[in-house]
Design a protein that fits this description.
This protein is of the alpha+beta class and about 200 residues long. The chain has helices at about 30-45, 85-105, 115-120, 125-130, 135, 140-195; strands at about 5-10, 15-20, 55-60, 65-70, 75-80.
Length: about 200
């Protein structure tokens, strides 16, 4: 199942303004190192992404960082596993940045850091949890999943109809055989009864 490891917001220099991580899939003793690596990755990726640009960075064919730096200098980064859909990741980044910029105007960005923002902006943690399912972020994926489920049901229905058709063909064939056997019985009975007339 696709996994989101980190959701972060920073300024264009890579200074973190808000960040949430889900490191439960890592060993307890590795989590500190993983979190440091995520911080370094986020800072480096944002620094190397030009304003107004999006970027997808793969790491070790296991992890993907989706980076978007808006023209106003606000940057969003989501770090996922390789299975997470790119479209959903960038949809999440857009939603998070829009919500964050509405809540915190650019004049406040200089005073924000992840430690203080965690209490002022708890929605980021909720979004990290909610968006573990990529279908929650992208309505198009949700529709695609529903279509796939409908297609499976339709295939099963068609299959059962075809099986029913085969059963009906067998019944029709048997009834034809029954009819011919009935006709033979009728003829035999008629001829037998004809010799017993008084």
């Amino acid at each position: 199942m696709p996994k989101v490891f980190s959701l972060a917001i920073s300024d264009s220099t890579g200074r973190l303004l808000a960040a949430e991580h889900d490191l439960t899939s890592f060993n307890y003793f590795q989590r500190g190192s993983v979190q440091e690596f995520l911080g370094f990755f986020i800072k480096t990726a944002v620094e190397r992404t030009q304003r107004g640009q999006r970027q997808k960075i793969e790491e070790q064919n296991m992890y993907v960082g989706h980076v978007y730096v808006r023209s106003d200098g606000l940057a969003g980064v989501i770090v996922t596993d390789i299975e997470y859909p790119t479209r959903s990741a960038f949809t999440i980044v857009n939603k998070v940045l829009e919500e964050f910029s509405t809540r915190f105007p650019s004049s406040q960005w200089g005073t924000l850091n992840p430690a203080s923002t965690g209490t002022q902006y708890p929605e980021l943690k909720a979004q990290l949890t909610k968006f573990q399912d990529p279908h929650a972020a992208d309505p198009l994926l949700r529709v695609q999943r529903d279509l796939d489920e409908t297609k499976i049901v339709l295939h099963k229905t068609m299959e059962s109809l075809l099986n029913r058709g085969e059963v009906l063909d067998d019944l029709v064939q048997r009834s034809d055989q029954l009819s011919s056997q009935s006709k033979m019985f009728y003829k035999t009975a008629k001829s037998t009864n004809s010799c017993c007339t008084y």
